[in-house]
Amino acid sequence: RRPPMRMVDSDSPASAAANWIAEFCDRPGNEFFCKVDEDYIRDRFNLTGLGTAVPNYHRAMKLLLDGPEQLDLASDDPQLETLQRSAELLYGLIHVRFIMSVQGMPQMVAKWMLGHFGVCRRVFCEKQRVLPVGLSDIPATDRSAVSQ
């Protein structure tokens, strides 16, 4: 079970989307994710075909972009956890597209240059930085691996 997302202060100058994305990317286990630009997420062209791949797509998008307080759900409502999982799946699918774009590649290069993905443990690799590699196109089928 994943730790719950913190409720966002509605008086915060940052957008709810930026807060949700930062919270998601900062969670343990999500180190390979970069922060997808909110404008990229709001551009419908970048979302083509995702509506059929994500349960509760529209509500998950609303959660991702507007925050949980806009869904009229109590923080202990079991439906919120289901929507949270849908929003995480949606963000992951958007992230895959984003990192292959002109806007996303520099972010991933920067993470690689800083060693965020780790280094090769083999002696002869001399601590060469590694890249994450998805072993399947199907979400939640397999974990990411690293490659030099």
UniProtKB/TrEMBL annotation:
Belongs to the casein kinase 2 subunit beta family. It comes from Macrostomum lignano. This is Casein kinase II subunit beta. One of its GO terms (molecular function) is protein kinase regulator activity. GO terms for cellular component: cytoplasm; protein kinase CK2 complex. Tetramer of two alpha and two beta subunits. It comes from the Eukaryota. InterPro entries: Casein_kin_II_reg-sub_N (IPR016149), Casein_kinase_II_beta-like (IPR035991), Casein_kinase_II_reg-sub (IPR000704). The lineage of its organism: Eukaryota, Metazoa, Spiralia, Lophotrochozoa, Platyhelminthes.
